[in-house]
């Protein structure tokens, strides 16, 4: 990172600064790219800091460009925060084709829109957001480079002993959320073949920071005295800043047919071991339920690491930061990950 890692993250402002701190390879990417960047679905968990990283990297590269964040912005404070960071914002309902048509042309697009939580019972809306909207976007921007976020859930459960799913594995999605995300990939793949659109598809598994993610979920359960279910006993985690960086750098590697990359941390993490570490740092006891299954949702990120290097922040630092943040009553996004779901229902 551009500065030494702190022992403790004092507040949201420092956290966002760390999450948007561009490594050298992202600065170089922004130096090599021409034109503006459109971030579709910027108001989600990762979008604001990804857009800020793009802005900071463009300035550091001496390559000023418009970074434009697009969302419905149901929370006006998110829009204000982005604009204060120098990012232009546009309100758009991506389910409305006419509104998509009115978006400005941009040679570089990061597609982050999607729906996961609340999918059970509203499956048609999930399919519309995750499969129909990507088709609209791909048709609207046939000559752009597109980096499209997907999820490791498209693989389904894989053996804990197998080292994680790789990009050439046959997808076996479980549940309508994961199936609709594979539908998103297929839409971008189809239009890449039709228009020769350069696309990179990123199967993320899973981004974490102090306000959100599996490690934060576990820390808060321990603090609340809740038992932790061990059935989904293993997981991957990657510092959100590293996921942001790899996504932006993937713009240079977009191709037709699409490049598919797993974005995941290098460690296969044990829920039991992470909870034991967190409990010690939180000075709390932890109780467990169930036993670890022999399979889990796990991804192997070697292809991305070969392009961009290993993530800059390891799990020990993430656990230390998270425990400190939760112990001090730091802010939360209030969105549990439900990572323990094994039936694909969210």
Question: What does it look like?
Answer:
This protein has 12 helices and 15 strands. It has 346 residues and is α/β, with parallel strands linked by helices. 47% of the residues are buried. The model has no long low-confidence stretch (mean pLDDT 95).
Question: Given the C-alpha coordinates, what overall shape results?
Answer: globular
Overall mean pLDDT score?
95
Tell me the series of helices and strands, N- to C-terminal: HHEHEHEHEHEEHEEHEEEHEEHEEHH
Q: What level of helicity do the residues show?
A: 25-40%
Beta percentage is 15-25%
Summary?
With 346 residues, the protein is of the alpha/beta class.
Throw out a few tags for this protein.
globular
List the helices and strands and how they pair.
Elements (H helix, E strand, L loop, with lengths): L11 H8 L4 H9 L4 E4 L6 H15 L5 E5 L4 H9 L3 E4 L5 H5 L6 E4 L11 H18 L4 E7 L6 E2 L15 H21 L2 E7 L2 E2 L5 H10 L4 E2 L4 E2 L2 E2 H10 L9 E5 L5 E2 H12 L5 E2 L5 E2 L5 H7 L6 H13 L19
Parallel strand pairs: 1-2, 1-4, 2-3, 4-5, 5-7, 7-12, 8-11, 9-14
Antiparallel strand pairs: 6-15, 10-13
Helix pairs in contact: 2-3, 2-9, 3-9, 6-7, 8-10, 8-12, 10-12
